[in-house]
Structures are given as structure tokens and as C-alpha cells.
């Protein structure tokens, strides 16, 4: 793994610690279709609403791998990327500082954050598992899975089960880690999964239209990860496609 790849992963982990919650999902190396460019944009870390489209929650994070300080142009091009990604707030991370003008141009909606390369020395990526999805099989370098915090799943008359949801930072596939059987599994974008346990629920992924908070003509779609119980299908996570 190159130092820069490690840097990107470290930033994703920091974002996960800072932002990931029940309502907000953190997606490493996200790929979303830009609303202006209509082309796929790569976002180092996408912080987005977990349950449905709510653009007010969207934050894009870009790690700039420069050996020099950030300048006005860097901030301006990032601002363009934010607009294309429908993000009103952004975070630009760099190891070597930024100019005064860059700071002024960033105003309130772009947060310039310095994370020194020396911090990588203490980074332990061993908590990240290798992606096990077929989608990563053909690639030169397999992705790593960024795990969320564990969640408890309960059904009437069964003890609470702990599960962790993760996403691969290369192919993007959802992963499920069931603490009862210890199994780790992946799901493609439209698939179903039941672990080795006898739980009265299973997991399902589906590409669905978002209920957009902002009208507009564009059809917004996401891959949803659903927890399907006997009575309900609950959204557990979401990966926007635009
Ligand atoms: Zn993968
Ligand atoms: Zn299990």
C-alpha cells in the first residue's frame, strides 16, 4: 500500500470516528454521478444521510496529496466539485498547510484541515478487513472494508444479536459481520444474504429511487441495504449513486 493510499484510508477512518452515527453513513472512496457534469466523480470520503436523500447532511471530503501548501485554485476547484456533488459543506485535508488566500476563499462552508504525514506512523489499518467480494477479485489491489460501529438487532423472544455493517473502499460492496456466528459476508448491489445463524431476519440490497428532499428533475438513486424481518424491511445503510 502506498503512503498516499494509507493517508486516504486514515482520513476515512478519522471521518468515520467523527461523523458516523445512526443517521449518517461514511462512505470511503465513493463514486457518485455529478448533477452538473453528469459524469462519475470520485469522492475520497462521502458523509451522507443514512436513511434517505437529505442533501443538507452531505459533506464531501478530499485529501489533497500535495507536498506544497494548498492555494486558492485548489479551494476553488474543490468548490466546483462540491457543487457537482450537491454538497453544501466540504472538508479539504492536506498535510502541508494552506495559504492565507486559500483560507479566505474557503469561507465558512469549506473546512481546511491539516493532517500531518507523520501521523501515519501510528495508524493501524489492521482493523480494516480485506474485501471478500467477487467484485474485488479481478482487481490488482483488493479493497479494504471500513466497518461501522456495531449495532444490536433484536426480535421478540430472541436475545439481541450484534452485527457490524461495512463498505469496501474499492468496489463499494456492503459487508455484514455477524458476531453470533462470526461470519463475514458481502452483498452485491442487488442481492440477498442470510448468515449461518437461525435469525428470523435476512439482509437485502436493492437499487431504489430516493425520496428527494429537494424536488428537482433529476432521479436520485441509491443502493439500499435493508434488514428484512418477519414484519418489516428496515433501512440499515445507504450508498448514493448520485
Ligand atoms: Zn471490494
Ligand atoms: Zn450469524
From TrEMBL:
Assigned keywords, A-Z: Endonuclease, Hydrolase, Nuclease
GO molecular function, one term: DNA binding
Domain Restriction endonuclease type IV Mrr as annotated: residue spans: 3-120
Superkingdom per UniProt: Bacteria
Statement: the UniProt record of this protein carries the keyword Protein transport: no
One Pfam assignment: Mrr_cat
Swiss-Prot/TrEMBL GO biological process terms: DNA restriction-modification system
Name of the featured protein: Restriction endonuclease
